[in-house]
């Protein structure tokens, strides 16, 4: 792992957490719950609070600057996703955003329409859609293979017919980690005239995708898991967003940014989210011309994934060779995100507690994937140990984790 596409020292210099004395020697393996925040994001947040913490979009200078900072965030996040700024909506969290979308679809779908959901999802994604059953919507479940946790395209096809209006899937599971073939799913869904909503929360930290290539009509992810502030971001095809019933104040019906985010998202955090794009451009600079991609965001994505694949290999090799744990999901690092769950005879949280003695910050539980746990034959109360990392993790920390597992499992 010496020839990595990203220099860990240069990457980590862009995060204040890695120079924080209280975190020295602590290896962070709970990134699926939230990543460290990049300095570029904190700089924008600090400036907003110091200079423009007023109502935005007003007539005086500070207010106008505040509005411009927010507008920039919409534009920058859109550029990173390869869509136009009118795709982007900010809300307080992805859970809240999905809940609001579910309510909007309840007023748009008709009794007798069908939707498809999976049991591979975080409950925030699948639960909001399943509630549509109370409105007379038929809910069909695309079920995982109980042995592997995989979603097979062969089992999706029989669920798709002219009644289906929406299919909701995860880009990858927060437990299984396998990267689902979203572009192929989109092709099947669009062939029957349906909409594809993708929960990207567990994928986006490993590189914001090109949504134009991916083909999703809705893509949701969390800014606080992609090196930013605690906000949820959803990209929605503008013509679809315009068709959905207004979820905000009646007098804001003509304002696209207000119609699907009724809670009133934090202005400063929206402005700070432009720093996510700033950070990704810094990653692309560190990666250099060797990284594949026709713009900085695609090069950052490619370098981040290559970095993670290289570091996941020794950890997956180690876990594959243990006969006292069950590795959930594929053992090929190229097929999955580095969110790695293992089932052990002890509850996951108990193993995590012992790992903490070795400077490993991890956690255990069901991580709101209750239905998936049951499908895999794992007691959700017992849960799994989850070890999640991103591109700023170092090879040394991977070895620190393996040594801790050796001592405690």
UniProtKB/TrEMBL annotation:
Domain called Aminotransferase class V: residue spans: 28-401
Q: Write the record's keywords in alphabetical order, separated by commas.
A: Aminotransferase, Pyridoxal phosphate, Transferase
SUPFAM superfamilies membership: PLP-dependent transferases (SSF53383)
GO MF, any single term? transaminase activity
Q: What is this protein called?
A: Aminotransferase class V-fold PLP-dependent enzyme
